[in-house]
Design brief:
By secondary structure, the protein is mainly α. 73% of the residues lie in helices and 4% in strands. Helix 1 runs antiparallel to helix 3 and helix 1 packs parallel to helix 4.
């Protein structure tokens, strides 16, 4: 299990870096899209729309490259893992049978147990790889939540009025042609 974990730690690091790169490219593209939507008319009138589209295409290309690297790392780990497990079990059975003269039925049982252990390690390695790919998104989201919490606006108002009990207006008036229309208590369901 340790051999497999060490061999695939490089693929985990590659997938993590690719996940980070994809997250950064996605963030840049989102910011560009917001700016483009806000300034579409000005961009078209100044003939800068085509330049913007080409830079957006470059960003999409960067996201695509990061996604390809990430998928190659994930699929490389998945495909190579089964081959490596079969090779390790086969080599172990061969060496134990030839060098130590252990009977083949005992080796088959040991091989099945070893295969189960290595398969469990492999599943854990896949989950770890997935977690590392999503780590940057999680960190960015928690930073955004902390920033939003630190910039929260306080509620400057008083008690929220209950309109079902009626509304009392004090020191408020509204007049039309010297006739006061508003400036009294308005009971619920009645006109003032």
């Amino acid at each position: 299990g340790l051999i497999i974990a060490l061999m695939f730690s490089r693929l985990v690091r590659i997938a993590r870096k690719a996940g980070t790169a994809q997250n950064k490219q996605s963030q840049k593209l989102s910011m560009l899209m917001v700016d483009t939507a806000a300034n579409m008319k000005a961009l078209k009138s100044m003939s800068r729309y085509q330049n913007l589209m080409s830079s957006m295409g470059d960003m999409l290309g960067g996201m695509r490259r990061a996604l390809v690297v990430q998928e190659v790392a994930v699929n490389g780990m998945t495909q190579a893992n089964e081959l490596l497990i079969a090779l390790l079990v086969g080599i172990g059975i061969y060496i134990a049978n030839v060098q130590w003269h252990i009977p083949l039925p005992e080796l088959v049982v040991s091989g099945v147990v070893l295969y189960q252990i290595l398969a469990s390690t492999s599943r854990l390695q896949k989950y770890f790889q997935q977690a590392m790919m999503l780590e940057n998104s999680y960190v960015r989201l928690t930073e955004l939540i902390d920033k939003a919490a630190s910039e929260a606006e306080g509620n400057g108002g008083g008690v929220v009025p209950d309109p079902s009990k009626g509304i009392k207006l004090e020191k408020v008036s509204f007049a039309q042609r010297a006739r006061t229309l508003l400036g009294q208590r308005a009971p619920t369901g009645q006109r003032a």
